[in-house]
Each structure stands twice: as structure tokens, then as C-alpha cells.
Amino acid sequence: MTRTPRRTSPSTLFLWCIMTTIAAPAARAAEPVRYSVRFPAPQTHYVEVEARIPAAGQAEVELMMPVWTPGSYLVREYAGKVEDFAAKKPDGSALEWSRSRKNRWKVATAGTDEVVATYRVYGRSMSVQANWIDASFAMLQGAATFMTPADGVARPHEVVVDPAPGWKRSITGLPAAPGGKPHHYVAADYDTLVDSPIYAGDPAVYEFTVDGVPHLLVNEGEGGVWDGPRSAKDVEAIVRAEKAFWGHLPYDRYVFFNILGEAGGGLEHKNSTVLMASRWATRTRPSYLAWLNLVAHEFFHTWNVKRLRPVELGPFDYENEVHTPSLWIAEGITSYYDRLIVRRAGLCSVAEYMAGDPPSAGEDRTINDFERLQTTPGRLVQSLEDSSYDTWIKFYRRDENTANTQVSYYLKGAVVAFLLDAKVRKATDGAKSLDDVMRLAYSRYAGDKGFTTEEFQRTAAEVAGVDLSDFFRRALKTTDELDYAEACDWLGLRFAKDKPEKKPEPGKDEKPAKGWLGLTTKVEDGRLIVSQVRRETPAFDAGFNVGDEILGIGEDRIPAGQWSKRQEAFRPGDKVSVLIARRDRFQRLDVTFAQEPARDWVVDLTPDPTDAQKAHRKAWLGE
Ligand SMILES: [Zn+2]
């Protein structure tokens, strides 16, 4: 029996693995943990888990539940959903157990070779990092479902799924266990189990192969609304485009879980992804484009972050936060490429690509990354690497002041990726691009190795053949404004602010300017409430607070629904006194209306590109 160290830190574990490999190359693989998961009453949102834990020769077995899941950098306390924990011997006799940490259970084995732990997990969170169980289907995430021995020993983990009556299938990225028993899967190790969501239900499944490799699109909840065949055809086009980008498919089989309902979002895994979208999303062009971008994004992670990863992101410590400065590479570069891949796959037009992200909740217009970044006051407060490092306490814990103090590593990361792409293209006279940087980085650092931020930067500089240290220092470590001139010149792009002045046509374009305070409001219980106050606005300067209830301007009451209409009655420069209620006391705030800032950062193709610019665009947008 091998004496196993306690799980102290990933590096200790890593060393231990090397040492045991060297010391005992012929050692027998550790005994597997064997789970069965059942849904005796799925309408109550519970999954029942039985875990059979090898315990031979051990006085105690300590089990742990992750507190977070890779790809989503927030401590989620999965143990909080666990109930009815019990431990027994295989003969059914009870074993003593106690809690040793918020996410650990310690069982006295009393000499048994196998501990049978049972518990149930409540799952009614429609999100890609949590469990959902109801009468129709279950979507289980490994970190939220499976306890494992806390000793850190690498061992297989087997799962047998018992679908509820009426559920025809279980589907997961895990390989089927040898012997071909239905609903029986095996993960080579705990990381693989955590990385392999498990679905059970009765979905619409579309299968296609690319280079002989099978792919499944699993649509849960099509409901006669979602266009399944079309979505499968377009997912296949995205797979082909990304395979062409990277040059290979790094898995034997891939599953797209597409859960259609009220929620949105996606989470990447090594050979699967969980997507959530509205079942109406195939019905309108903007929402369908947003879904295609999501597919391209999560699938791009198959390479970028699941295999080519920042060195800090593996092996995973499931019990503590893991900080890295490089999420701008993992998420920002992926965000840069998601829409670009959709464009290169021919699934959107150049005009749609240039328009930017389709409107999302609370927005009524498309917006490109440049405009969103340049209108976020927090870009001048937080650097890109800080944004990445602090994601656990900032990006994943946003509040009403976030726009003022933070910049998203998705957003600024995507813009920096664009600038880097253009820089490499220009430095190599179009011979190379960021695509080559990603492929070279993959060939060097994919797998267990990981890259440091310096290694990634050196790889980029090597492909560009020029010194990029000043570019990276400014872009990653400072809050200096980014310089778009070089990229725009190379690709023949221009911003609205750079367009030649158009003379207004009398009577047509001469609309009186509207007053603007820069407040974001919401209506709550019929009351008009301030929901966000951005820096660099009249409202911020006048001292409006989030939570203020706006009652009137001057001596006139403003019905909650009339706010935007009433503002139209004012002009830039008008001074007014706004009556508010703050913590149930009346108060007046003096404020001067300003003119809403022009949309300077709307970008388009210059109408008269040079031949060189035309060629550069074609290479970039894949026309
Ligand atoms: Zn992502």
C-alpha cells in the first residue's frame, strides 16, 4: 500500500507524481472511485450520489468538494448544496464521520476496504457552472456534484448514470466504460471528471463528423421553436473553420450541450462545452449571431485555455483561488477570434462583423469593442493584467460602480489582441499574423507545460520579428489609452471621429441637441431609481447616487415612465434642480444638462482603401 501525502499544494502533488513515476514505474494504477447518480424525484431538483471510495489500509478517508470550477473564477461553495451525507461499509453498517473543513468530510474506515458515501445535491441553478435538475432533464457539472478523496492521488473515477423514467439518454464527453454497459462512463482522473459535464434527458441530438471525428450538438428544449438542423449545420462550419485555424482537432469526440431556456452563457471543457441560450435565438438575426459567436468562443477554448493555458491554471487547486495575469490571453484573445471565426466561416457579412456585438440585454444597438472600451471610465483606473489577477474579487463580483473602476479582460483583451494582430501583420508585411503566434505558442506550451506571460510575449515578438516589449508593457501594465492609428492604417479602418465633417443639410439634419445627464435608471415598484452613475457625466458631478429615487425636475413631478421623454424638453446648458428621495428623505440636486457625447468610436471600413489595404482586409476578414 502506497503511503499518500495529504493534498497540500498542486506543486507538491506534481512533485509527488514525478517521484512515484520514477520510483515505481510498474506500480498498479490506483483503485477507482465509483459513483452512481440517480434522480428518484427530479421534479424536486435533487440528484442522489453514491460514491464508493477505495479505503484499504487507511484509518480515515477525507473527501472534498471543489469550491470553484475551472473557467469560472469565483468561489461558489458547491458544498453548500450538499445534504444528507452518510458513510457506511459495503455491508451497510454505518461509519463515523465528521466535518474537517467547509468542503470536507472525514470518514473513519473501521478497517473496511471500501467506504460508501452517499449524499444528495440540490440543483436548480440554470447556469453553466452549476447543476440543473427538473422533471425534464438534468445537466450536471462535475465540480458541483462529485466529492473525491482529498489525498490528491491520481485515480480513475467511474460514473453510472440512472436516468429518471422518460429520460432516454445520458450524454457526456467522458468515454464509455469498457464493456459497453449503457450510461456507464470512466474518467481517467478527477480533473477529467470535473471537466466533463453530464446530461440526462430526452434532447434533440445532431451528429456530424469533421475529419472522421464525431461531434454532437445536443439541443435541450428546442420546443418546436429553435431551428435545430440549421444550428447543427452552422456549428459544423465553425468546427471546420477552427480546425483550419489550428490545423488539427485535439480530441476523439466533442459534445456541444446547448440548453435552451431563459439563461445565457457558456463554459469550455476539453472535449465538450455547455451553452445556454434563448430557444428563440434562431428567430432573429442579432440573437442568432450572438449564439454563433458564443459557439465559436467556447469552441476556440478547446485549444486556447483548455490545452494552451497560462501556467497558473493547472494542475487545479479546487479549494483555493488561483490568480493569473494572463486571462487577457485566455479570454481576450478568444473573444477577439470568436466573431472573427464566424466571419471567416462565412456565417456573417463583413458589415455585420464591423458593426460589432449584437445588442444584448439592456442595449438597443450594436456596439463594437473599441466603443465599449473607450466609453468605460474604468479603463483609466485598472490595467489589463490587474483585471485578470483580480477577477475573483472584482470581475466576478461586479457592482454598480464596476464601470467606473474596472476594465474587462475580455473586452480590453480583445482590443489588445486586435492591435497585436495588426502589429504582427504590419511588421511582417502581411506574411504573419496573430494566428501564427497562437499556433507557435500552442506547439511550444500546450499540454501540461503552460506559459508564463513573458513566454507568450516572447513568442509574439519572435513571430513579429520586432521588439514588442513597449507595446506589451503599455497595453498590459498601464492604463494609458491604446493607440489605434497603426492598425487602422494597415487595415483601412476609420472611426467616426476621424471622418471628414459633414455639413448639416438645412431642415433635415438640424435637430436641436437634447439634454443629457448620463444617468442610468430603472423603474422599480413604479418608482424611478438611479441604477448607475458613470464618471465623466453631469450626474456624477452633481452628486447623484445609485439608489436615489427621482421625483421631479424643478416644481414638476416626473412619472417614472416619462423620464427619457421629459429630458427631451431640456437643452445642453439648461440648469435645473432635481428633486430626489434618498434614504426616504427629500433632497434637491442642482445639475446642468450637457450634450450626449458623440459616438466617436463607431468603426467602419474606409470607403476608398488602397490596393494594399484591400489585400490586408481580405487576409484579415477572410473574404
Ligand atoms: Zn471564454
Distinct small molecules: zinc ion
Mean pLDDT: 93
| First-last Cα distance | 62 Å
Whole-number radius of gyration? 27 Å
Number of strands: 29
Largest sheet features:
6 strands, mixed
User: How many distinct domains?
Assistant: 4
CATH class of the largest domain: Mainly Alpha
CATH evolutionary superfamily of the largest domain: Neutral Protease Domain 2
Number of helices: 18
Structural class based on helices, strands and sheet pairing: alpha+beta
CATH architecture of the largest domain: Orthogonal Bundle
CATH topology name of the largest domain, in short, is Neutral Protease, domain 2
Strand order of the largest sheet: 4-7-2-1-11-13
Helix content: 25-40%
Name the overall outline. globular
Taken as a percent bin, the fraction of beta residues is 15-25%
Low-confidence stretches: 1-27
Structure keywords:
5-stranded mixed β-sheet, binds zinc ion, Neutral Protease, domain 2, single chain, Immunoglobulin-like, alpha+beta, 18 helices, disordered N terminus, 6-stranded mixed β-sheet
Task: Summarize the structure in words.
- By secondary structure, this protein is α+β, with helices and mostly antiparallel strands.
- The chain has 4 domains: 29-201, Immunoglobulin-like, CATH 2.60.40.3650; 203-302, Neutral Protease, domain 2; 342-513 and 619-623, Orthogonal Bundle (Neutral Protease, domain 2), CATH 1.10.390.10; 515-595, PDZ domain (Pdz3 Domain, Roll).
- Helix content is 28%, strand content 24%.
- It contains 18 helices and 29 strands.
- Strands 4-7-2-1-11-13 form a 6-stranded mixed β-sheet. Strands 15-16-17-19-18 form a 5-stranded mixed β-sheet, with helices on one face.
- α6 crosses α11 and α11 packs parallel to α13 (453-464).
- 41% of the residues are buried.
- The structure holds zinc ion (ZN).
- Zinc ion binds at residues 297, 301, 331, 334.
